[in-house]
């Protein structure tokens, strides 16, 4: 009974998490080197975290908890002062923290080369890539847990995959937090990380194929195609086809004008008044849509599809993969991004760009105003890696920019760009 009462009054169980600490992957790894940890930055971050957790009465001596050995380590490093630890009343730390870290230079290479982000575990390449990606990101997680443990922080690594997290059409579908909650309750610090997890719809397709339920697999594939088509439709609707809108408004205007004339001829003046109001509204809408259509038709883009650029403010390298004549995002997005503070506001071309994973592993895709981009210098056109590159581009031209596939050019109604030395390339042969 006494133990039960003590457990019920456990302060860890009754108060909210004090802090969730995010260790950026780019900050704790060397982003230009594959699977390379910035040891000093990681050590410094762990020491600062211990300081933030420490009570005023915390012991100065750090109780190291990494008792494992690596090849070449002195045998003495594995000696544990069990007697001294058993006499300690506590660690003097507020362990009500959660640590989350990015992958940095871990995992992205494996995921990119195997296309694991596209799904398809029936493919040997994707299956191997899934395994390789998880090996990479969990190895980083283990090293971070060890670094925290060496600072006396009682840390435990937790992988979203092992905790049963999953997605559905690449959106989070389930996230079991019971292990996290229980670890906090007993005074452990959960350390979570970016991970590869199973997608429910894609997994169901693979399962159906594995047990030879081909009809079920076909239905699930059709459902997946339906979802992807709807996503594309919504994106296109957001961007809008202004020419078609203008034509529809003009047709409606003619129809309502004809109805107005009939109402006047039949002396139905109440209906005529209502139709006049509708015509005034349609004329205003038609004028706005026509202006929008004209903007789409006459826009002049500074940058082209496949061109490598640099963000003037944040400095990262990127490549153009889409373009809008004006900002097509929602009002709330524009408010969050402070679009009105730009010198040209939202009424300037905006570009979808793929961000070099070596420049910023945490930011894959961005939507950027034209005034915030600059053409990449020759010295900046070196190695560029991104998991979507091979789906949208054939390769690089002689100038070091990417060559967009035909479907991408047609989507944005952009001509093929010929870099100096590429003029003899046959468009039909490259678009097969």
UniProtKB/TrEMBL annotation:
InterPro entries: AceGlu_kinase-like_sf, Asp/Glu/Uridylate_kinase, Clp_protease_adapter_ClpF, Hemimethylated_DNA-bd_dom, Hemimethylated_DNA-bd_sf, UVR_dom. The lineage of its organism: Eukaryota, Viridiplantae, Streptophyta, Embryophyta, Tracheophyta. Residues 413-432 are annotated as: Disordered. GO terms for molecular function: DNA binding. This is Hemimethylated DNA-binding domain-containing protein. Transmembrane segments: none annotated. It comes from Oryza meyeriana var. granulata. It comes from the Eukaryota. Residues 420-432 have a biased composition (Acidic residues).
């Amino acid at each position: 009974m006494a133990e039960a009462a003590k457990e019920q009054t456990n302060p860890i169980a009754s108060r909210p998490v004090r802090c969730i600490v995010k260790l950026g992957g780019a900050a704790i790894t060397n982003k230009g080197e594959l699977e390379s940890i910035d040891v000093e930055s990681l050590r410094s971050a762990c020491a600062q975290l211990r300081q933030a957790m420490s009570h005023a009465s915390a012991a100065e001596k750090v109780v190291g908890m990494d008792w494992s050995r690596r090849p070449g380590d002195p045998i003495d490093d594995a000696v544990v002062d069990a007697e001294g630890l058993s006499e300690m009343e506590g660690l003097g730390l507020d362990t009500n923290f959660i640590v989350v870290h990015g992958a940095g230079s871990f995992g992205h290479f494996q995921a990119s080369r195997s296309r694991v982000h596209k799904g398809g575990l029936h493919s040997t390449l994707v299956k191997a890539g899934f395994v390789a990606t998880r090996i990479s990101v969990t190895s980083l997680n283990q090293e971070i847990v060890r670094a925290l443990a060496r600072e006396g922080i009682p840390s435990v690594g937790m992988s979203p995959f092992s905790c049963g997290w999953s997605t559905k059409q690449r959106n989070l579908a389930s996230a079991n937090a019971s292990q996290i909650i229980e670890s906090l309750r007993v005074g452990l610090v959960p350390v979570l990380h970016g991970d590869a997890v199973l997608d429910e719809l894609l997994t169901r397709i693979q399962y159906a194929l594995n047990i030879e339920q081909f009809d079920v697999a076909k239905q699930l594939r059709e459902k997946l195609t339906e979802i992807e088509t709807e996503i594309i439709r919504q994106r296109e609707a957001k961007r809008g086809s202004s020419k078609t809108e203008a034509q529809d408004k003009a047709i409606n205007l003619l129809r309502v004008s004809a109805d107005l004339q009939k109402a006047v001829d039949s002396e139905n003046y109440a209906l005529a008044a209502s139709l006049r109001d509708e015509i005034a509204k349609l004329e205003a809408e038609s004028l706005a849509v026509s202006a929008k259509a004209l903007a789409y038709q006459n826009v002049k883009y500074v940058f082209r599809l496949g061109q490598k650029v640099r963000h003037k403010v944040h400095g990262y390298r990127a490549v153009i993969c889409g373009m809008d004549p004006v900002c097509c995002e929602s009002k709330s997005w524009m408010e969050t991004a402070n679009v009105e503070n730009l010198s040209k506001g939202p009424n300037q071309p905006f570009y979808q760009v793929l961000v070099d994973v070596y420049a910023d592993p945490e930011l894959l895709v961005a939507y950027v105003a034209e005034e915030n981009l600059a053409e990449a210098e020759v010295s900046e056109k070196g190695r560029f890696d991104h998991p979507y590159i091979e789906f949208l581009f054939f390769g690089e031209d002689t100038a070091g920019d990417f060559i967009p596939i035909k479907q991408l050019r047609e989507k944005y109604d952009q001509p093929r760009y010929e870099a100096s030395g590429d003029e003899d390339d046959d468009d039909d042969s490259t678009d097969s």
